[in-house]
Write a structure and sequence with these properties.
Distance between the termini: 120 Å
Order of helices and strands: HHHHHEEEEHEEHEEHH
Shape: elongated
Number of helices: 9
Strand content: 15-25%
Largest sheet: 5 strands, antiparallel
Radius of gyration: 35 Å
Number of strands: 8
CATH topology of the largest domain: Alpha-Beta Plaits
Strand order of the largest sheet: 4-3-2-1-5
Helix content: 40-55%
Structural class: alpha+beta
CATH architecture of the largest domain: 2-Layer Sandwich
Length: about 300
């Protein structure tokens, strides 16, 4: 009976302690909430700028939450039983609360260590494309290209991207190790055009505009093969021939600098327009409605 009475007294004592700790915890949380409300009211009465109010509100909240962890931890310290256990619980709580910033810092370490891109590179992460202009602990910043602007030119918008996205999204680098990408220009001619002559003219236009790129591209590709398995045997411009519904499509495939793609396209298209204008047996194709009379226009053996 004495042992039972001692156990019962111990149980009631522990229950009272736990109940007291619980009440004290509620009081601390209530006081911190009231303190936050008072501080924010004072700030709002003295500060009119919306941005400053926002910063004050966020900083006060973070500070009081951290203080709450410490005060509540001291209340339950004896109940928990050891400093190591308390610190473990505190660390777990902080890790959950700061999961985003922690993963962002891990992403920053990955960016510094592996360097999938660096400041100055043109990249695409998820649906965002642009030139990297800054890399920090929690985010990296790009100057956006594309979107409503064509030919990968800048929109002028600055986009801040959390570092943890490098673990979740694919990363495309336009300028990693070699600053060239493949580009294609499609020219569609009518079926009646002299396509062989047109192809030779397009090849000459390509060589005139891109001869300076080929040697530089070959050097950069050779350097890149030391890090990657890249197999480019022919880097000179080439013109491919293909038949489509409305005519004969000649496609110029060539290397170009990603930041100069629109300028190169413009210069080459201006020469192509001049050539087509001068040649009587070459003309552009476009969507039209046409009546074809085989007996008059067809081949003699097929009439």
């Amino acid at each position: 009976m004495e042992d039972f009475q001692e156990k019962l007294d111990t149980l009631f004592t522990e229950a009272n302690v736990q109940y007291g700790n619980f009440i004290e915890t509620i009081i601390i949380i209530a006081l911190l909430i009231v303190l936050r409300f008072v501080i924010i009211r004072i700030v709002y009465n003295r500060v009119d700028e919306t941005a400053s109010r926002y910063k004050w509100r966020k900083n006060v909240t973070y500070t009081l939450v951290f203080m709450g962890f410490l005060l509540v931890g001291r209340v339950w310290f004896e109940g928990v039983g050891s400093l190591a256990t308390f610190l473990g619980l505190l660390s777990a709580g902080i890790a959950i609360a700061l999961r985003g910033p922690v993963t962002d810092m891990a992403g920053w370490v990955f960016l510094i260590w592996r360097q999938p891109f660096k400041v100055g590179d043109r990249i695409e992460v998820g649906s965002n494309k642009g030139d990297v202009i800054d890399v920090r602990f929690f985010k990296f910043t790009i100057l956006e290209i594309g979107n409503w602007v064509h030919a990968d030119q800048s929109t002028g918008r600055v986009i801040h991207i959390p570092n943890h996205l490098v673990f979740n999204e694919s990363i495309a680098n336009y300028t990693s190790d070699f600053e060239f990408i493949w580009n294609e220009i499609e020219v569609i001619l009518t079926f009646e055009s002299d396509w062989k002559k047109a192809r030779k003219l397009l090849e000459k236009i390509s060589e005139d505009h891109l001869k300076d790129y080929v040697e530089d591209a070959e050097q950069q590709v050779r350097r890149a093969t030391k890090s990657y398995l890249i197999r480019y045997k022919n880097l000179t411009p080439i013109v491919y021939t293909e038949v489509v519904e409305i005519g004969i499509k000649l496609t110029i495939r060539h290397f170009t600098n990603p930041r100069k793609r629109r300028g190169i396209n413009q210069m080459m298209w201006e020469d192509i327009l001049d050539v087509v204008e001068k040649e009587d047996d070459i003309d552009f194709a476009y969507n039209t409605i046409r009546i074809y009379q085989n007996q008059i226009e067809g081949k003699p053996g097929l009439k």
